[in-house]
Every structure is written in structure tokens, then in C-alpha cells.
């Protein structure tokens, strides 16, 4: 690559990067300003820096309660998705190939059904099963919605694990259950972390499912709490943006520590499979 071409390419990359970073800059800078500075000069850096915006947003959102609800729903859903899909994919790969192929195709086909098409029947079923306004109910629904993608990734990954490993374990006297948990599951580390990260970002930031299944204030997630808080302080952008930052920080931290597994897991689980 010629020097001139390299320079042009580098400038282009920097422009794209700045376009992606600029919204985050505006959110952070305006969250640290007073009301007057936000309305008069939203572009400049905050002067002075007002940390009290975060304290007011924290209290106004009921952050601790909303964080607990979101954490319990997210953690429970991720654990459920991983257990169901890891075991399910293992059985589909290793048992009854013909029947398993049909079941696998049916499960994967649900990835192409938009959530909006399932909203009305989902609410009716959840209401009839008394799953509305319950953390457990949210977990059950998220597990059901998260199965297709996770099954696709686990299925492709398990297909690449040599069957000889399981045969050796069976010769040593291990049953199917023990073989899976002691031999197969430890090999699924990268794809398991990938599924956990992708589902965490989805569930943590999801708004559509909670807004149709949660009506009690005490059960609100962070996205719902922010929604109602923003409606109350729609004219005070410094408080609304402070609430945005408080809502997304946990997801950013989780993604930062697990990002290196995403590409590795997706490539191994989807491309090779």
C-alpha cells in the first residue's frame, strides 16, 4: 500500500471512529453540565462539572431497585439459556441424527420470526400462566426467546468436538450426564462466554418485553425506570443523560472484560459448524 493511500485510509478510519464516538461524547459532556449550559451550549466541555446530576438521577430512577431487578432477570436468563441450549445442542448433535435435524431446523427457523409478531400471543400466554409482573416470568420468556440463536452457536461448536473424547470417557465408565459436564462442557468455554455476552447486552438493554409484561413500579428494569424518569424530566437533559450513563455502565463493563471471546466463539460456533 502506497504512503498516500495509507494516509487517506487512516484519515477515513479516524473520521468513521469520530462519528461513532461523538454521540457518547455528547451524552457524557451534557450529563455533567447544568441546565443553562446544556440549553445554550451543548457542544462545549462542561464548565463547571456537576456530579450532582448523577446523584439526582440515581435517586429519581430508584436505581438500586431497578438494577437488582435487571441483574436478576439477566443473570437468570443467561444461566437458563446456557444450560438449555448446551444440553439441547449436545443431544441434537449426538443422538438420533435424522429426527434431530428436523428439530434443529424448526428451532433455528424461529430466529427469522420478528418479536413484534409474537407480542400479542406472548402476552396472552404469559398472562394465563401468571408470568406477568414476576422476575421468574421474565426469565422464562427470555430463555424461550434466546434459545434459537444460542442453539445455533452451541450446535455448530459441538459438531467440531471429536467423538473419540466421549468414547474414551464411556470406556472409563462415565455415563452421558457425566461425560457432558466433565468432558464436553469445559470445552465450550469460548462459545459459552460469547452467548453470555451477546444475551447480556440484549436482555440488559431490552425495553420492548418489559414494557408489555411489567406494570408494577417495584418490578421495573433499568430501561423501564429510565423511560419513566425521562418522561418526567424530558426538559432537563442533564438529568436524563445522567440516567442514560447509569443504565449502560454495567453492560459496557461486562462487554469490556469478555469482548475477546466474542469473535473466537462466533467463528468457531457458526463458521466452522
TrEMBL record:
Segments traversing the membrane: 7-28, 66-90, 102-123, 135-158, 179-204, 237-257
Swiss-Prot/TrEMBL GO biological process terms: transmembrane transport
Main location class: membrane
Subcellular location: Cell membrane
Keyword Lipoprotein found: no
UniProt KW keywords: Cell membrane, Membrane, Transmembrane, Transmembrane helix, Transport
Protein name: Carbohydrate ABC transporter permease
Entry's family note: Belongs to the binding-protein-dependent transport system permease family.
Pfam families attached to this UniProt entry: BPD_transp_1
UniProt topology in membrane: Multi-pass membrane protein
Assigned GO CC terms: plasma membrane
Positions of the ABC transmembrane type-1 domain: 67-258
Chain coiled-coil ranges: none
Matches recorded under Gene3D superfamilies: MetI-like
Amino acid at each position: 500500500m502506497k504512503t498516500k493511500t495509507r494516509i487517506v485510509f487512516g484519515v477515513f478510519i479516524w473520521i468513521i471512529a469520530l462519528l461513532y464516538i461523538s454521540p457518547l461524547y455528547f451524552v457524557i459532556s451534557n450529563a455533567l453540565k447544568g441546565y443553562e449550559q446544556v440549553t445554550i451550549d451543548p457542544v462545549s466541555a462542561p464548565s463547571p462539572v456537576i456530579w450532582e446530576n448523577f446523584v439526582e438521577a440515581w435517586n429519581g430512577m430508584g436505581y438500586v431497585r431497578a438494577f437488582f431487578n435487571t441483574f436478576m432477570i439477566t443473570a437468570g436468563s443467561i444461566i437458563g439459556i446456557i444450560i438449555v441450549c448446551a444440553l439441547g445442542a449436545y443431544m441434537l448433535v449426538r443422538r438420533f441424527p435424522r429426527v434431530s435435524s428436523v428439530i434443529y431446523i424448526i428451532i433455528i427457523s424461529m430466529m427469522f420470526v420478528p418479536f413484534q409478531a409474537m407480542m400479542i400471543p406472548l402476552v396472552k400466554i404469559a398472562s394465563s400462566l401468571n408470568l406477568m409482573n414476576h422476575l421468574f416470568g421474565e426469565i422464562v420468556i427470555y430463555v424461550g426467546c434466546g434459545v434459537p440463536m444460542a442453539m445455533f452457536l452451541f450446535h455448530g461448536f459441538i459438531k467440531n468436538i471429536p467423538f473419540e473424547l466421549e468414547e474414551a470417557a464411556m470406556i472409563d465408565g462415565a455415563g452421558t450426564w457425566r461425560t457432558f459436564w466433565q468432558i464436553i462442557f469445559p470445552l465450550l468455554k469460548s462459545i459459552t462466554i460469547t452467548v453470555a455476552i451477546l444475551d447480556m447486552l440484549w436482555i440488559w438493554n431490552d425495553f420492548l418485553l418489559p414494557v408489555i409484561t411489567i406494570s408494577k413500579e417495584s418490578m421495573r428494569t433499568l430501561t423501564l425506570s429510565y423511560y419513566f424518569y425521562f418522561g418526567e424530566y424530558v426538559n432537563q437533559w442533564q438529568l436524563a443523560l445522567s440516567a442514560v450513563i447509569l443504565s449502560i455502565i454495567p453492560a459496557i463493563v461486562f462487554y469490556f472484560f469478555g469482548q475477546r471471546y466474542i469473535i473466537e466463539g462466533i467463528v468457531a460456533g457458526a463458521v466452522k459448524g
